[in-house]
Q: What sequence folds into this?
């Protein structure tokens, strides 16, 4: 998807189309840019940049708060469209997916025609702009998609991968960040073609096992298979406060919101969690992380919230203001049958909480997560 968060915001604010838009908060807030429109990027605004820096670079930009629940809802709609075109579709992030179009010709025509049809359907159905890359490998398809932005489709025929990649800067290759880029530049390597010309043995001497991957990537190779319906290893959410706070009501309601958020994600994954982790970051950036492992895995809001709250009570230094709160779930597993559950809750109480979870999930799916909160949690907390 093209500038996905911004594009979703523009559905409600069409008058901002063509203007520099920054999502992440007000320019006087402490925080970072979540997303920037292409017009804002023209001035050097980038994701993860401090909001104040973005305001200096583009003082006439429109700054908007993010609405992560809304982004998730639109992402789900897009995923439903993708599933119509291939049974092998992998959502790798909220705004990025891979599809295997092999074997779909009878339904959708040749892959290039199918890709055009898919992008048109996403645009006409959602009103959101998107781009695509079509290639024999995931890596080349991703690079092609980035090169096609905005609102484009780029096809790299099989056998043309090396020629397509050769003139591109090495930073265009997924997985090559600033540190590797600088190291390669120190070896006189700036383009993917130059990287591909280096013997693999030399790259392994310089970078170890990473050198093997670099040699493969430079030639457009993949080391990945599609991970359809891959199960998450952990689920987390966090919130950075606009101002450091020791307001107990704010802290409690924020923690409640985060716990409900990760509990719903957990249930959507069809999993239970055994290990629950709390993160507290103080004003001076000191971070405290504490975990608790339950005797019985759970997906219930109350158990997840109560455990995190106990951790918070035990480890919050009340003399200090909090900058960030985070809640996470790990040691994920498939739910045990009722007969195998150890009994953190009695059967009647468990069933009551199960019914409550099912009812609230249905309402949230229909009206949006932020429209229904339990136990006084904040309505407008934005979390990652």
A:
């Amino acid at each position: 998807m093209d500038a996905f968060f911004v594009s979703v915001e523009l559905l409600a604010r069409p008058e901002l189309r063509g203007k520099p838009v920054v999502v992440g908060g007000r320019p006087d807030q402490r925080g970072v840019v979540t997303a920037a429109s292409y017009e804002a990027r023209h001035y050097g605004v980038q994701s993860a940049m401090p909001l104040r820096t973005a305001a200096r670079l583009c003082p006439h930009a429109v700054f908007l708060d993010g609405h992560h629940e809304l982004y998730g809802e639109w992402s789900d709609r897009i995923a439903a469209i993708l599933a119509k075109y291939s049974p092998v579709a992998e959502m790798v992030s909220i705004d990025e997916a891979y599809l295997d179009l092999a074997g779909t010709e009878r339904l959708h025509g040749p892959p290039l025609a199918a890709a055009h049809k898919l992008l048109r359907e996403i645009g006409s159905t959602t009103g959101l702009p998107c781009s695509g890359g079509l290639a024999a490998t995931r890596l080349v398809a991703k690079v092609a998609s980035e090169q096609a932005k905005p609102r484009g489709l780029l096809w790299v025929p099989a056998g043309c991968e090396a020629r397509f990649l050769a003139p591109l800067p090495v930073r265009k290759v997924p997985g090559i960040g600033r540190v590797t880029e600088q190291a390669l530049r120190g070896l006189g390597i700036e383009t993917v073609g130059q990287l591909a010309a280096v013997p693999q043995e030399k790259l392994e001497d310089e970078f170890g096992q990473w050198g093997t991957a670099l040699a493969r990537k430079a030639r457009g190779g993949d080391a990945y298979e599609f991970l359809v319906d891959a199960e998450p290893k952990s689920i987390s959410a966090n919130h950075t406060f606009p101002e450091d706070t020791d307001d107990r009501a704010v802290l409690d309601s924020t923690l409640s919101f985060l716990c409900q958020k990760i509990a719903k994600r957990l249930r959507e994954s069809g999993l239970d969690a055994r290990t629950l982790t709390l993160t507290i970051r103080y004003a001076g950036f000191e971070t405290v992380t504490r975990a608790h492992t339950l005797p019985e895995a759970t997906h219930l809001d109350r158990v997840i919230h109560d455990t995190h709250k106990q951790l918070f009570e035990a480890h919050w230094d009340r003399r200090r203001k909090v900058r960030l709160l985070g809640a996470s779930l790990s040691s994920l597993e498939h739910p045990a049958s009722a007969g195998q559950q150890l009994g953190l809750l009695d059967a009647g109480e468990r069933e009551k909480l199960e019914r409550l979870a099912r009812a609230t999930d249905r309402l949230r799916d229909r009206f949006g997560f932020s429209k229904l909160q339990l136990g006084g949690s904040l309505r407008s907390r934005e979390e990652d």
